[in-house]
Amino acid sequence: DQQVKQNSPSLSVQEGRISILNCDYTNSMFDYFLWYKKYPAEGPTFLISISSIKDKNEDGRFTVFLNKSAKHLSLHIVPSQPGDSAVYFCAASALGGGSQGNLIFGKGTKLSVKP
Amino acid sequence: GAGVSQSPSNKVTEKGKDVELRCDPISGHTALYWYRQSLGQGLEFLIYFQGNSAPDKSGLPSDRFSAERTGGSVSTLTIQRTQQEDSAVYLCASSTVAASSYEQYFGPGTRLTVT
Predict the structure, then answer these.
(1) Is B105 left (phi over 0), alpha (psi -120 to 50) or beta?
(2) Which residue in A has a C-alpha nearest to residue B46's C-alpha?
(3) Closest by alpha carbon to A111, among A4, A20, A2, A7?
(4) How does B82-104 read in b/e, with b if 16+ C-beta sit within 10 Å?
(5) N or C: fewer beta carbons within 10 Å in chain B?
(6) pLDDT tens track for B89-108
């Protein structure tokens, strides 16, 4: 049973427009969420994170929104650039629940930004 | 500074053979994680080391899998009697597990193919 779900395996967006990547989770103990970006043949690289005490975190072109009641988070990239084309993974951790910090990942969404 | 490194980058082995995968974490990072990514799947947690504490082995899929971390630094993941379903990219990550930062930094991975 997947605890972190990314229901869109792929997303195509025009350069300059907004990319919205979605993630749903089922475990109410999750209290820390992260987004990673992965290029082919490379390991995932950390992008942005949010604690469950917040509902928004912004870093440059990247903003993560958290809706705890809906157990939903989203990553907004605006404006999208061709270099943003990669697979994006949503991850969650239950740090306050005594977790060792291991991350539970979704299956990823492949973003393609067209010039 | 150097990031997380893994070796080999690719490994092809025959079914039934043992393999060893190596991870060099970022210097000073006390936490080390192993994950694997099978084709079309998200990252699956395998094992976690934190300082001198007993490792969290809860993600290991079978007793054919084991890992050790020597001197609190380098880690080796060993898979005995490999099976075709072990084919995946094995990723290592490290982190500081600081109070405000739980981001994990990933290596490039080892692609294991069992024939």
Answers:
(1) beta
(2) A102
(3) A20
(4) beeebbbbbbbbbbebeeeebbb
(5) N
(6) 999 999 886 544 568 899 99
B55 at A interface, C-beta within 8 A: no
Report how far residue A42's alpha carbon sits from residue B36's, in angstroms, rounded to the nearest whole number: 13
CA torsion angle B99 A96 A32 A45 (round to 10)? 60
If pLDDT is split at 50, 70 and 90, which confidence band does B83 have? very high
Inspect the interface and report whether the beta carbons of B43 and A89 lie closer than 8 Å.
yes
Read off the pLDDT of residues A93-108 as tens digits, 9 standing for 90 and up: 887 655 566 788 999 9
Contacts of B43 in chain A (CB under 8 A): 44, 89, 91, 103, 105
User: Which phi and psi (to 5°) does residue B86 adopt?
Assistant: -80, -10
Q: What letter represents residue A109's amino acid?
A: T
Query: DSSP readout, B2-59?
Result: ---EEE-SEEEE-TT--EEEEEEPPTT--EEEEEEE-TT--EEEEEEEETTSPPB-TT
